[in-house]
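Practice problem: predict the structure.
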Amino acid sequence: MDTEAQHTERDRSSAPAPPEHSSEAAAPEGRSRFALAGRVTEWVPGGWISLTLLACLLFSLFLNSFVAQPFQIPSRSMETGLRIGDRVLVNKLAYRFGAEPRRGDVVVFDGTGYFGHADYIKRVVGVGRDHVVCCDKDGRIQVNGRPVDESTFLYPGDSPSTVPFDVVVPEGALFLLGDHRSASSDSRDHLGSPGGGMIPVGEVIGRADWIVWPFAHQARLHRPSAYARVPAGEGADG
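Answer:
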């Protein structure tokens, strides 16, 4: 018998087999990539659907708090452009990063302590250091000595004001009127209130840029050209 040959065969059979590469061996590594996501969905009742809805809700809250906010028109004070029940989109970034409200802008603001305990929507007629007077011999409002033609947005049949006033807007404040003057409680009606009918710029929530509802009434709200030739208020730069 060839014992050397027998030992050789025995040695070969006892040697460990080389590792086999298969999809079974790689599977645990692949599954680990989704382990964290899987654990998150286990924590949230409803799994992926609830997690998606939660993300959408958080994104909506972010937009509503910092970017844009819907506002429902509560009264007739801004007719005919804005009617009761209309929903406007308020641009909350319009006056950030150094920008200020301009004459003619339609703004939403917190009137607490000035007009009442609510949010209001009015048109900016005077900004800081403006001299606003009503009315001249032709029945028009004057801003810094310049008469303003409000016919493009004033409610048909309304006069610019049945209440005379002569005010200088403090720095950092706004003088605001509704377009439907006979149906609007605005700066004219609060001249004797705290703040003298003026609203601090810091109370402005944002600028109303779009009518988004109802669909038939959708429109972009543009700043009218009526104030384009009004000079800067006394002491203002430019």
